[in-house]
Fold:
Amino acid sequence: MAEINQNFQKLPGSYLFAEIARRTAAYQAANPDKKLIKMGIGDVTRPLAPSVIRAMHKAVDEMGSADTFMGYGPYEGYDFLRDAIVQHDYAARGVTMSREEIFVSDGAKSDCGNIGDIFSVNNVVAVCDPVYPVYVDANAMAGRAGEYDGEKWTNIVYMPCTAENGFVPALPERVPDLIYLCFPNNPTGMAATKDQLKLWVDYANEHGSVILYDSAYEAFIRDPEIPHSIYEVPGARTCAIEFRSYSKTAGFTGTRCAYTIIPKELKVNGVSLAELWLRRQSTKYNGCPYMIQRGAEAIYTPEGQQEVRETIDYYLNNAAIIREGLAKAGLTVYGGVNSPYVWAATPDGMGSWDFFDRLLQEGNVVTTPGAGFGPSGEGYIRLTGFGDPENTKEAIRRITRML
Ligand SMILES: *Cc1c(COP(=O)(O)O)cnc(C)c1O
Structure:
């Protein structure tokens, strides 16, 4: 008789967004005349850049002709895209990367979760708290998390990210084998400096830990001192895997293209992690579509670069409206500078779900309560710059009036 993977039975329901939807729907049903503004949105809203659309149209036409048709592509991505990544995302920032270290995929979410396939189930995993839930749940499914006690997993090392530590975690007491870091961070919107990352790189090299660095939001960095890649930090090539995505960079959330970097020097017990990952991908994955990779390549043309930058500036402008507006209204706010996310402390230490309810009922604004991202998210709410400027300004006016 078949048996299920019992680890799935231990997972709590995906409470956060279901609960937000439930409370929002209940309020709207009772108050059908109220127009709600959604500031919790975690998806991009602007269309793909014209350069991307042109490149994808051309690639579709190529697929319709016998002499230019493409079948299965390389598991690790086409060289045209990997070479563009080497040149524009790394060499341009003074980082040497080779084509063989780049693995193109259909998303950073899948890569962040699937990377666990190449590591032992006995590895201890550390995550930031609050956290993007994918890292935790994927490791729980694999049997690395222990038991869920209603708030935390017994075998996960939670690293509090608080106002006191600038939302960059301190080195943990228990030494983890795998360390997920994400900067600029979702949900806090805070970025890490080179010096802050250097501490982690040195720690990982010293203990033989592997850093899993999610830089899905690197394109939002405008401060020239903030590193876009962990490989801008000396020593990272022997301890870090980096995840990048075109989702937030270029609006590819529905288009699907990302990549993972595993340097040649990164070995565990003498075994190359890049070789293991290629083995894993070539067994369970058949590559990102040709048309999509052509679309991603177009982001690196001069017009493409300018178009995606304008879109990110649009989101950053919304984030600035939120950050400055809420600060003026008297809230303590973080993030929203090198990130589309603003992390706001609730007034008078109010619970994050209570403040969520107040904002919904009195302000008619939907946010995301910080507690949904982990215990240290309590006392905060997350707002995002992915809306449009008019609604964003109206939401801030409403919150200001309410406070
Ligand atoms: C949106 C996001 C991603 C991107 O995931 P894709 O699967 O590439 O769309 C990765 N990490 C974090 C933290 C995110 O918020």
